[in-house]
Amino acid sequence: MEKLFREGRSFYLSPFRILILEEKSTGERPVVRMAVSVPRKIFKRAVKRNLLKRRIREAYRLNRSVLTEFLAEKGICLDMIFIYTSREILPYREIEDKIVLSLRKIRSEYEKDIE
Q1: Domain positions in the chain
Q2: How many Å apart are CA 47 and CA 69, to the nearest integer?
Q3: Residues 6+ apart with CB under 8 A from 43
Q4: Which residues contact 82 (CB under 8 A, 6 or more apart)?
Q5: For the whole prediction, is pTM greater than 0.70?
Q6: 2-114 has which fold?
Q7: So what's the pLDDT on residue 76?
Q8: pLDDT < 50 regions, the chain
Q9: Residue 79: which of 111, 32, 38, 13 has the closest Cα?
């Protein structure tokens, strides 16, 4: 995890800051390892942090194929973390839309790199 923060590339897509680190592809490793962070500094109550993490993980689970199928074809493995930066609890639909946009942005970056 430290390596992700030290060496990873990042971009901001409100309400997320997303860090990405490309790793060497090995057969036993998943194509994408994803983590979620909701800072205690912003949301003091664990109930609110857990609600947001559940929403983010579910949105990712339902839409990860946008990215994972492409990466599997190209033999690329990624570590990524979604850091929630908004001060308010957004509805699930907004979170899902932003997750889909961020996955498409990551995919388009790798499509450019390959071409």
Answers
A1: 2-114
A2: 33
A3: 49, 52, 89
A4: 16, 17, 18, 34, 35, 36, 37, 56, 60, 99, 102
A5: yes
A6: Ribosomal Protein S5; domain 2 (3.30.230)
A7: 86
A8: none
A9: 32
